[in-house]
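Why show two proteins at once? Because comparison is the fastest way to build intuition. When a single record is shown, students tend to memorize it. When two are placed side by side, the eye starts asking what differs. So, the first record is below.
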Amino acid sequence: MTTQDTEQYREFLRQLQREEHRPTALNDIKNLFTYKPAGEATTTIKDVGISKIVECLNVPDKTQVDLTCEVLKVCFDKFEPGEVVKNYTSHVMYLLRHEKSCVRKLATDEVYKAVAQDQNLLPIPQYIDVFVAVAQLVIDTDIGVANKAILITSNLPSAAYPKVLEEMKIALEYNASSKCNAYEVVVNISSKSYELCKLCNDQGYIDHMLSELQSDDVLYQLNILELLSRLAIQPHGIGYLVKQGALKKISDLVVELPNNPLCGLLTPGYIKFVGSIAHCYPKEILDKYPILVNLMFETFESGDPTLLPVALDTLGFIGTTIEGKLCLAALGSKYILAVEKVGQIIRNSATEIKSRALNCFANLICVDKDPSVPRGGPVDHRVTLMTREWFRSLSSSPPSMETLFEICKNPFPEIRLAGLALLDAVCQHQWGEELVARTAGFVEYLLDRSNDATKESKEAKYDIIKRLANSMAFDASIITRLQTHVEQGPFYSESALEVAMEEGD
């Protein structure tokens, strides 16, 4: 900026000293810097300073505070990430502790820019007080400020956490929402490494979370369970929780659930907790904590309509992986009865629960969703035998594949798509391909484009046809038709081809 611009900025700052001139002067400053190149603007701002602008925040007038924030934002936006915090540390600390949320937001945004650019941009020794002040804002009444504080505090260098976690304990003295915000930060930090998990536990946070599961606040309990499950799916997280006895404490709470007047509201949360961990560590959970898994199986036995949806989703989630299928099968009769119950729900239930059951069954049958299994590679023969038996339990009369054929033709899109998902899972096995080949009219239905009203249905059928196009279960003429369909793509139509040919002529 020119010397004239610098002197003009000084003059506008002088005018801020008189209350009646302040709104005009603030707008003049905003207009002065808005369209100036960053290099020119920052040179003048650093030379003259921002103290006089910051002082304009120390008033009860909301309109003036809002305008001052706009001016400061224009100034701050001219700086590179981290430069505002480095050049105006004391001002940033004042902004972080200001009573107005728009001011706190302005400051957290600047700290976030630095951390998002490079978490080492603000060295810990010099800026630890800034990070502590941000961490204490996880309890902020403004959701936007609190969420930004959670994001920043979750992504600091490890060296910051001993001090930050110690000072953030203030959040544990506030309401459930504030405590959950602190817990979220703790889980995010703990998930990074075993050492940080130990640090969070040594600071008392994890024990505090477990003790709060005794709360009468249902939503609060469910939030804690969800956060604990996020930690438990980390390899070091599950190990640490087991070592500290956390899963044993949760198992004890499950035992007491029937005596809890809030049992009906809490049980879905505990089932989801079990599912999220057992999906990653089926052997450890199903073998060592049967009480947790029994909660899901008891839901199938009771047929409680309020709990069945989450039980179906959880069973399917656990059974998505090969290890999950094998561990479930090892449970014997409890699991077989659950599979039979899923089949009953598919045959006899209303739309929503039927589609959930179909998707559950699809996850139990499929092998492609397990990232440890190479696509198109050999399937464990135990899984082949088990999944075939499970599918047979869908229906005995008519046979399971005929039942599935009817489901795939269902007029309700949600059920039809869930049926196609199960068919896709079945076709991942040779026995499934053979059943399709032996079921009269099934291949013709898949190749018939006229019965697909939605994009999702066209794509689902196309994916199945791609699977079958190289199958040994069909004769050469069928394979030719399937491969032609694949070459034409999911959205091919004869009418579109005719129009294209006419336009060519």
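Second record. Ask yourself what differs from the first in the token line.
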Amino acid sequence: MPDDARVRQRTRAALGVLLALVCAAVFLTVLPDDREDGGACPARTVASWAADPGLTAEFARYGDDAARSDDWTGGDGTHSVRLPDGRVLWLFSDTYLGRVYGPPNPVGESYAWRDTSAPLVRNSAVVMSASGHLERTLAAPLFPDPGADRWRWPVAARVERRSPGSAERVVRVLLWTRTAGEAPWIYGVPTATEVATLSLPDLRLDGIGTVLDQRSVPDVSRRVLFGTSALDAGEWTYVFGGDDRQAVKHPVSRAYVARVPHGTLAEPGAWEYWDGKRWAARARPAPVLGDGRRTGVGSAFSVVREGGTYVLFTMAAGAGGLTSVTSYWACAPTGPWHGPARSFSPPLPGGGGVAAYNPQAHPTLSGGGRLVLSYDVNWLTASGAAAQARLSRNVSLYRPRFVTLRLGRGR
């Protein structure tokens, strides 16, 4: 081989080694950020699951109790937060109040029922004792409508200090504000993310403030509402959200993430949004999960952290999304998210025509390697007077149901 050829070959080899070293250095530099504290981040997925009849039965017991005529008899959008004194505050979106009768119901079926004139409010909150006994419904709606044809749905909640350095604690509740709209926006046009403050221990509403107003985003399907899930990691509270692409016939919606320093959920200026490259205030959020076809999230989803791994639960894409829950995992809230993993189908009432939705994890009710997950149940045709009449004819449908999961090694 000529000398100049040998020189070129050695040069290429040296450049290859140098490039490999640079890539390794970059990888080692980025890895701790991807994994936050640099800890282990194994792939996680659902290893096993089982129905949780105890929690499901407790909500059925409370909903069927006819001792009061102004309390919760059914609702969806199930979220929970543990209070400092051990109680659990359960938050619901659209809620039926009134009384439950039967069975049998007026058409002779063996189901408990409510009158079709029973009050329907846009949100409610139910208090559970530290021992797990549902005790009372707060005056509903807890969060008043912001205006004509507008309403608030509560989502994730956290307990925070009222202000930095304060000894007083309060509950911060994230709210989705929606405005009535025509098809395909039968569940309302996404409008804004708000944060409400509830005093402790009396759970009195102290105020509501806007965090992110989306009315200036012209494409309604790209408006992002935050709060479907929130969790603490390091010095931050991470708040996840989604868009409404499913409303315009996309198989899935896309997930987004924001963060705030601990204790500042109610301060709009403290919020930072992931824009695809960095965290920034006043940035246009960029999706962290969702290709619009195979990967993505349902209208609501939940995220938990186990060790150094984040696990996201959502309804499966496509037809499976009517009955099956799937999961993704990542080493950081911003991803990359891996999945979807193999899905599972929680129990649904018999008779067909029923869908599951809104899987929500409840870490404060979990422990010993077990994770409690709720899901809501409704008719596939869940809008309009006819659907509401069917829900009233069988009150067990519009109540949360629960499963217990164990996470294991994924891939």
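One difference worth noting in the second protein: The chain is about 15% helix and 35% strand.
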